[in-house]
Automatic annotation (TrEMBL):
Function: Catalyzes the formation of 5-methyl-uridine at position 1939 (m5U1939) in 23S rRNA.
Entry keyword DNA-binding: no
Record-given protein name: 23S rRNA (uracil(1939)-C(5))-methyltransferase RlmD
Active site per UniProt: 400
Highest taxon listed in the record's lineage: Bacteria
Leader peptide range in chain numbering: none
InterPro entries noted in UniProt: 23S_rRNA_MeTrfase_RlmD (IPR001566), MeTrfase_TrmA_AS (IPR030390), MeTrfase_TrmA_CS (IPR030391), NA-bd_OB-fold (IPR012340), SAM-dependent_MTases_sf (IPR029063), TRAM_dom (IPR002792), U5_MeTrfase_fam (IPR010280)
Residues the record lists as binding S-adenosyl-L-methionine: 276, 305, 310, 326, 353, 374
Alphabetized GO MF terms: 4 iron, 4 sulfur cluster binding; iron ion binding; RNA binding; rRNA (uridine-C5-)-methyltransferase activity
Cited NCBIfam families: PRK13168.1, rumA
Gene Ontology biological process: rRNA base methylation
Residues the record lists as binding [4Fe-4S] cluster: 79, 85, 88, 168
EC number: 2.1.1.190
Length: 444
């Protein structure tokens, strides 16, 4: 057996570099002696000094210690813990530059992975504000006596430790401004070292915090939580096991809902349900998707990965009939309830695992001239072969990961007979490297 080569020790002194581009996760790219080096905290066009933080066979990693020549894209991060906290990776870049970079990342993925280029690049969808937008989040909790007590927030970048932040600027202020009070509350509990996580779920009006507990709370703990909730206009829920154990502290459920005013809709959801984190962008995204589909009164639409009806019910306001399909039975139940609550009758919902064989699914026996796809990060590859057979002339694909969008776009264009008419990004997660996009396909 050959001997493993010893890795060279990391240089102790800072190194100077020119930053050439940005990776998909927001790190600057430099080449040192011909080897790619990903430098956190840098931007394209900058000259920086950085220290090495890691070495791999094919690339190295580093962190900026000084910006010698700043990019015109650079701005002062709002958060004092930027670079430590893992919640954001792009606060040092101007918002318009972030969006342009995400647009280019999507186009690069389409070109290099899918071997496709859209006929038209859609203007990016951006919200009214890039701050305080996040209405769903999982916050880490850790009792650290050496740091003065309990820390509540996002975890440190590349670490399981919780970042010490007093205020989170991307969370909705109802929670983002409340981190010190949450820390003080948990410090007073008997099980302060048995609470690893708080999950935030917020509708248009009400906000729920779910406290994950590894040990049962005492009566005094419950009393303190019961006081804290109303004091800060929050509903407190407890979770002492899996998701099925989530329950309101006072045993009275708090209804969560969000409105889609353009479509005269109000959708209800449970705190553990998947919903979009950015309500402003969600509304704009739905309107754009429906506009791209060019809906008409006689259209029959298939909405795959439909969730609780986020697209299905707005589609039904115009189309003749909409069929929604989703793998999570709980979300399907919520979608049906939302249809009833909004007096929408021209919809049908089915539960089906869209990553398994679909040959016996009843909805596949029908014809659909238009399709909306909104898959998770893994994409929609398994369902694509069915779309031409169903009669889909126009497809809108909503994506949360450009790599799988590009892969699936390549299949639709090169194997299934479609043309990529347009594509663009939506700034669902400002200050992060997350890329949400939308694409339109038409049958040739």
């Amino acid at each position: 057996m050959g001997r493993r080569r010893k890795r060279k020790p990391l240089p102790a002194e800072p190194v100077e570099a020119e930053i050439e581009s940005l990776t998909h996760d927001g790190k600057g790219v430099a080449h040192i002696d011909g080897k790619a080096t990903f430098v956190y905290g840098s931007l394209p066009g900058e000259r920086v000094r950085f220290i090495y933080t890691g070495r791999r066979r094919r690339y190295d990693e580093g962190r900026v210690v000084e910006v010698l020549e700043p990019s015109a894209q650079r701005t002062e991060p709002r958060c004092s813990q930027f670079g430590i906290c893992g919640g954001c990776s792009l606060q040092h870049q101007k918002p318009e530059a972030q969006v342009a970079g995400k647009q280019q990342a999507m186009l690069d993925a389409l070109k290099h992975i899918g071997k496709v280029i859209p006929d038209e690049i859609l203007s990016p969808l951006v919200g009214e504000s890039v701050w305080g937008y996040r209405r769903k989040a999982r916050l880490g909790v850790r009792y650290v006596p050496k740091k003065g007590g309990t820390l509540v927030g996002f975890r440190e970048r590349g670490s399981s430790f919780v970042a010490a932040i007093d205020r989170c600027h991307i969370l909705h202020p109802r929670v983002g401004d409340l981190l010190p009070e949450l820390s003080a509350l948990i410090d007073q509990l008997s099980i302060r070292d048995q609470i690893p996580q708080i999950e935030m779920a917020m509708g248009d009006d009400d906000c729920i915090l779910i406290f994950r507990m590894l040990s049962p709370p005492s009566e005094e703990d419950l009393r303190k939580l019961a006081i804290f909730g109303p004091q800060h206009k929050l509903a407190i829920y407890l979770q002492q096991g899996g998701p099925e154990t989530i329950r309101p502290l006072d045993f009275e459920a708090t209804p969560l809902n969000y409105s889609l005013p353009v479509f005269d809709l109000q959708l209800s959801f449970l705190p553990s349900d998947f919903t979009q984190v950015n309500s402003d962008i969600n509304r704009r995204m739905i309107s754009r998707a429906i506009s791209l589909l060019e809906l008409e009164a006689d259209d029959r639409v298939l909405d795959l990965f439909c969730g609780l009806g986020n697209f299905t019910l707005p589609l039904a306001r115009t189309a003749d009939h909409v069929t929604g399909v989703e793998g999570d039975g709980g979300l399907v139940a919520r979608a049906r309830e939302n249809a009833i609550d909004n007096a929408i009758e021209n919809v049908a919902f089915y539960t089906a695992n869209l990553y398994e064989s679909l040959e016996n699914e009843p909805w596949l026996m029908h014809r659909f001239n238009k399709v909306l796809l909104d898959p998770p990060r893994s994409g929609a590859q398994e369902v694509l072969e069915h779309l031409p057979k169903l009669g889909a002339a126009r497809i809108v694909y909503v994506s949360c990961y450009p790599g799988t969008l590009a892969r699936d776009a390549g299949i639709l264009v090169h194997e299934e007979g479609y043309r990529l008419l347009s594509a663009g990004v939506m700034d669902m997660f400002p200050h992060t490297a997350h890329v949400e996009s939308i694409a339109l396909f038409e049958r040739r």
